[in-house]
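can u do me a favor
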């Protein structure tokens, strides 16, 4: 009975000192734990996490049963656990930081430092690039020519571009036709489009990290999914076997596009929404009409 009373008193004393900062602290830790579990779920890191948990369990049991040698060895392992975790979970940590960098919060700050919306000339270049890619994709679909187009957004792909050939040229169906011609040296890689221009061609893209159930998904489609997983890029892929046009965004592949639907999805994801600005003259005009009525 005394044990229950002491336990009840400890709970009351704990809640009496509980503050709002403690609640916020608990919520943040809970969100971090949930984020880590969500990040490693269905990946190889999940098994590694189970292994680390077993090591901690063995350490606790060794301490309870006074197994000196086992405890000493595991203690040395745990002393370097932070460095070991960073080495083992390097891909997952990098993915988490990339997702944080692509969040709406960070994008808002990025737009403030970059000066907000794109200019009219940049918007015109982007619209032309979208039109040229759509025309080229339809042409390649008819001729069964495999192709990969990567539209760069906020995440810069200079490291990916370094695996290919830097071009820095205007977009056109003729240039894309030469790049993806099946005997051309750059046809196996992807073309990266930056600010409405072909920044690089023949680039090697990372393959997707998750397993794909569909057997008709080839290397080009896996590369398109992989590129959209590690960046905010919009990737257009044309199948060499079927001529099907697909688009990969945020790790999700959608298929069977025609020209109109392809242009629509590219404009939706690449062109910023223009906010209507009130005209100063119309504002004063309405004020004047209101005064005349009075």
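np, heres the sequence
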């Amino acid at each position: 009975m005394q044990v229950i009373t002491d336990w009840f008193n400890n709970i009351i004393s704990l809640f009496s000192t509980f503050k709002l900062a403690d609640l916020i602290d608990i919520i943040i830790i809970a969100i971090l734990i949930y984020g880590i579990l969500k990040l490693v779920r269905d990946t190889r890191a999940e098994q590694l996490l189970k292994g680390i948990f077993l090591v901690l369990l063995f350490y606790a049991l060794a301490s309870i049963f006074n197994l000196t040698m086992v405890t000493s060895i595991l203690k040395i392992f745990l002393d370097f656990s932070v460095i070991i975790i960073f080495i083992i979970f390097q891909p997952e940590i990098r993915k988490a930081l990339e997702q944080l960098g692509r969040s709406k919060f960070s994008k808002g700050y990025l737009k403030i430092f970059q000066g907000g919306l794109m200019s009219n000339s940049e918007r015109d270049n982007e619209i032309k690039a979208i039109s040229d890619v759509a025309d080229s994709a339809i042409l390649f679909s008819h001729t069964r020519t495999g192709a990969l187009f990567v539209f760069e957004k906020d995440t810069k792909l200079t490291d990916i571009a370094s695996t290919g050939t830097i071009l820095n040229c205007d977009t056109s169906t003729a240039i894309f036709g030469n790049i993806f011609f099946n005997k051309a040296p750059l046809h196996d890689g992807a073309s990266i489009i930056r600010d409405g221009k072909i920044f690089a061609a023949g680039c090697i893209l990372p393959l997707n990290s998750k397993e794909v159930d569909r057997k008709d998904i080839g290397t080009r489609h896996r590369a398109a999914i992989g590129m959209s997983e590690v960046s905010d890029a919009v990737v257009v892929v044309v199948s060499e076997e079927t001529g099907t046009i697909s688009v990969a965004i945020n790790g999700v592949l959608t298929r069977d596009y025609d020209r109109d639907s392809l242009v629509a999805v590219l404009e939706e994801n690449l062109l910023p929404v223009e906010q209507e600005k009130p005209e100063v003259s119309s504002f004063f005009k309405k004020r004047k009409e209101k005064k005349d009525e009075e």
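The chain is about 60% helix and 10% strand. hope that helps!!
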